[in-house]
Amino acid sequence: MRVLVVGLGDIARKAYLPVLATRPDISLHLATRNRDVLHEVGRTFHAAGLYTDLDTAFASGRFDAVFVHAATEAHPAIVRRSLEQGIPTFVDKPLADTLAEVEAIVALAERRGTLLTMGFNRRFAPSYATLAGTGATQVVMEKHRHRQADTPRRVIYDDFIHVIDTLLFLAPGPVERTVIDAQVADGLLLSVALMLSGDGFTAIGTMNRDSGLNEERLDVIGKGVRRSVLNMSDRITSNGNACHDRRGDWTSVGRQRGFEAMCDDFLCAVREERPTSADQILATHALCERVTLYAEKGADAAR
Description:
By secondary structure, the protein is α/β, with parallel strands linked by helices.
């Protein structure tokens, strides 16, 4: 497969390229405007092609798939270019930072009949994926940052989106009620909380951007068992007694955090010509917009 990776920032170099570069079925091509970064990363990952602009990249030949890891504000234009050429496209979260833009891009993918996939890695992280379907009546996810208050839209769409998507992924049924709260000072989001509930379950997500530590914790509770995951690594199963487990010393970060399985799934979807999971993409971004509007303008705007 001839695969193009657009954007060579931290997430691409740490999470995606170590996975993609080791696959013998991939001819890896890279694109970024920064020539120094392009050649350095190209040498590191033995890329077959290097490009400083999309026009040159797309003129070099047909790609079987495109991975988009550029800055959020660049996602819509890049993704549209790829979809318009009928190329299956994988993009880091978020697809865009407004719901209207997301809806327009998803509609384009559906019109073109071209696969569009989001980088929600927690759906594929082994410690999280195994918790789906466990009969939970309560899901609680915390994801905190040390002194990283920022504008509501940036926090929600670039970071809290993982909490929102994980809650939707693990919720055992349709969401019937939504409650949002947020603390904002001087235009900066300090903390946010979201509660989703339905028949027999409650899912709660919280984030504090002025916390004492960068940390993530997930608790899935029900049927007499509490299953906890700390920082996507350490696992604690409590069933009268607590049993501690952690990832093996030789388990790669790409496997632990779901990037390996997520890339595999996308490339399999390309080969199998699967359709876009539009409902999943739209549901997560729609909640992002509701939470953002609440933080920006209050409860009336979020309805």
